[in-house]
């Protein structure tokens, strides 16, 4: 599945039950909050857990909880709630960053990663012209991925002869660079 096909999970204004569930715990002012708890909206998690702990006979302030004071009470139900909600708020915040980048077009989905084996079409250049004669499939390893001057990902591939070739990341894949030798050989046959 392409990441552009995924439905957004994070929202600051959940409308349906599923949206509320996916956004129930969230980060606000560097603290975890719950969208609803104890009959209130937008509840500071540390304050809510402090009240739960007091009902069980503990005297934990929200500041004590914020400083990870629940470490020795990690088996108590209020501590488990706290840790799960903090985890959910942190994961939601990170997912929101990626969804925002995807939505505004600044998230780049790469076809490979550093260390992957790729196969590209190569050959030799004529000495008096710049035209390349493609006559072989070359195996290489992705050495590095950078963002070029125009914001296009560039993929540097090193072959067995320690020669590097740079490809325009997304555009060259499936045309001159392939993830399998079979795909490269098929493309080479199509050029003959």
Summary keywords:
single chain; 192 residues; three-stranded antiparallel β-sheet; 6 helices; alpha+beta; 8 strands
Task: Write the SSE topology.
Blueprint: H1 17-22, E1 25-28, E2 31-37, E3 40-44, H2 45-55, H3 62-66, H4 77-104, E4 117-125, E5 132-147, E6 153-159, E7 164-168, H5 169-172, E8 177-178, H6 181-191
Helix pairs in contact: 2-4
Strand content: 25-35%
Distance between the termini: 33 Å
**Proportion of residues in helical segments:** 25-40%
Mean pLDDT: 87
User: Structural class, from helix and strand content?
Assistant: alpha+beta
Helical segment count: 6
| Poorly predicted parts | none
Basic shape: elongated
Kindly describe this structure.
The protein has 192 residues and is of the alpha+beta class. 34% of the residues lie in helices and 29% in strands. The protein has six helices and eight strands. A hairpin with a 4-residue loop joins β6 (153-159) and β7 (164-168).
Question: Quick summary of this structure?
Answer:
The protein has 6 helices and 8 strands; from the N terminus they run αβββαααββββαβα. A hairpin with a 2-residue loop joins strand 2 (31-37) and strand 3.
């Amino acid at each position: 599945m392409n990441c552009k096909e995924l439905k957004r999970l994070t929202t600051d204004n959940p409308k349906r039950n599923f949206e509320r569930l996916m956004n129930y715990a969230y980060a606000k002012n560097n603290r975890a909050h719950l969208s609803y708890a104890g009959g209130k909206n937008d509840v500071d998690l540390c304050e809510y857990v402090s009240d739960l702990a007091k009902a069980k006979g503990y005297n934990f302030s929200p500041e004590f909880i914020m400083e990870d004071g629940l470490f020795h009470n990690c088996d108590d139900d209020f501590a488990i709630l706290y840790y799960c909600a903090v985890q959910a708020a942190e994961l939601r915040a990170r997912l929101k960053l990626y969804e925002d980048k995807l939505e505004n077009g600044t998230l780049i989905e790469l076809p490979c990663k550093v260390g992957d084996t790729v196969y590209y079409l190569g050959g030799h250049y004529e000495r008096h012209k710049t035209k390349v004669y493609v006559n072989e499939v070359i195996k290489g390893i992705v050495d590095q991925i950078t963002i070029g001057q125009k914001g296009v990902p560039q993929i540097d591939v090193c072959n067995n002869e320690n020669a590097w070739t740079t490809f325009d990341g997304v555009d060259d894949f499936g045309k001159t660079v392939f993830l399998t030798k079979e795909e490269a050989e098929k493309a080479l046959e199509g050029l003959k």
